[in-house]
Write a structure and sequence with these properties.
It is built from 15 helices and no strands. The radius of gyration is 21 Å and the shape is elongated.
Length: about 290
């Protein structure tokens, strides 16, 4: 109805906004063909009327649809176009957002060196602008990228900064993310007590809020919290296995497996986490069986 009215009165900007809203609805319904059609039409209108800010927003929305489909190459193309649009507009916060989103897609693609360059540039801009919540998002991604690259000192630096900032903001997901990153670093370093402590913090944040039940039902919470929760259980299981505490290790491993089984996202990253989680859990089950017989 809104789209019809905007077209009848000749409001092109309103028409583009309505198309974006319709595209978002189709994306939620997993009707990606319709979502792409509406989003591309909205982008074309913004280009026709010279609305660069709207064009930038539509490019980001288009990237999200491509990510839902699982086409990371097309998503990255849209985000790189958005970065160029932000450069034309001259709004630094827009450029930072495009760089951070592009870094996330590159991280999904395992292009971590390129992702690192983008996230550092985006983080530098955000620090200069003082956009605190966006800084938290960027720090979380930066720490994950450094962890993937086995750069523990830099990952620790980002994670500790994120932990302090997230605590000030009262953002439990970022607090949990920081603790998980620190847990994995400490486990790799052989500091079992610190690893268990940080992983335990993730569980304390998630489980008292009914997070596990919410995540299994796939409602209310961001997809990313599922990864945090299963990885926290997995980390505790690895700590307990090293201590030869096989029964509680198995309990945490089973909890991790249950959460991994709940992941049914259409996002390619969600599927990657599912298969990665299945593989890691099977491997740790094998380690646990071997440990019990030695």
């Amino acid at each position: 109805l809104s789209l019809k009215i905007e077209r009848e009165i000749g409001n092109r900007l309103g028409e583009a906004d309505a198309l974006c809203c319709i595209a978002a609805i189709h994306t939620c319904r997993a009707d990606y063909r319709a979502a792409l059609g509406h989003q591309e039409e909205a982008l074309a209108i913004h280009k026709q009327i010279g609305d660069k800010a709207g064009e930038w927003d539509a490019q980001h929305c288009l990237a999200r649809v491509w990510l839902e489909i699982g086409d990371q190459d097309r998503a990255l193309e849209a985000l790189e176009e958005a970065t160029r649009t932000a450069q034309i507009v001259g709004t630094r916060s827009m450029r930072a957002a495009s760089l951070i989103d592009a870094a996330l897609v590159k991280h999904f693609r395992r292009d971590d060196e390129e992702a690192r360059v983008d996230v550092e540039e985006g983080l530098r801009i955000l620090r200069e602008l003082g956009i605190v919540e966006s800084i938290s998002e960027a720090l979380s991604l930066a720490a994950q990228i450094e962890t993937t690259q086995n750069r523990d000192p830099q990952a620790t630096k980002y994670a500790e900064e994120l932990l302090g900032l997230a605590a000030d903001l009262g953002k439990p997901q970022y607090i949990a993310r920081a603790h998980l990153i620190l847990a994995r670093i400490r486990l790799a370093q052989g500091d079992l007590d610190e690893a268990e402590s940080h992983a335990g913090q993730v569980l304390e944040i998630a489980e008292p809020r009914g997070m596990r039940e919410l995540l299994v039902l796939e409602i209310a919470e961001p997809r990313g919290m599922r990864e945090l929760l299963w990885r926290a259980h997995f980390c505790v299981a690895r700590v307990l296995l090293r201590r030869a505490q096989h029964v509680p290790a198995r309990e945490h491993l089973d909890a991790a497996a249950q959460i991994v089984e709940s992941i049914t996202s259409n996002l390619e990253e969600g599927l990657r986490q599912f298969y990665l989680g299945k593989r890691e859990i099977v491997e740790l089950h094998d380690d646990l069986r071997m440990a019990k017989h030695t």
